[in-house]
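Late entry, evening session. Most of the bench is empty. Finally got around to the prediction I had been postponing all week. Sequence below, unchanged from the version circulated by S.P.
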Amino acid sequence: LADHFLIPRVPELRRRFPEIRLDVFADISHVNVLRREADIAIRQRPQDKSPAEASALVTKVGSFAFAAYASAAYVERHGGPAYPAQDLEGHEMISTGKWSPGDPWNEQLAHPAKYVLSVYPFSAAIAAAAAGIGIAVLPCLGMDRDPRLVRLTDVIFAYDTWVVTSPGAQNNPRVTKVKAALIEMLRDAERELSGALTLGRTEV
């Protein structure tokens, strides 16, 4: 989200708010907005999980989708999975850990792919997939536009995406302005975030 959504929009945010310095902390660790560990948090959560601390202000802005990708060279060697993908027998998989959707999705298939590499963070998984090492389940954001990758499936999992602030942020005009701009930008990018730029299986 930081690499493919937020950082490319920092020039626009700086143009609109030249007096505000932005500090971007991109990590999966949880920050507490009530303790002002961050002024604004952008979070992805499963649909049944609360996005924030009690009393925090939350705004749902869309979904954050994942699909399976591989390089054209990998597909040339191994072929693509049948559509819809229910069997990855004979395929090789890049593991991104139990906390991400790729491994659980692979393991519930009738014939899962064989893991050949485990990597973290997603930037490393993207590089591994682009190098032809195997199939990786990656965020659709950025990957649907990456010329090194072929999308092999429809969306296989999506988190809800939320913008979160503390109640006290309502009295801070700098935070409220940036929060409103981020909500607008996230909603404008909904097709990229939700995986709607590529519908159905890419022909290979």
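Two things to note before I forget:
Residues 53 and 194 are 25 Å apart (CA to CA).
The chain has seven helices and seven strands.
Will write this up properly tomorrow.
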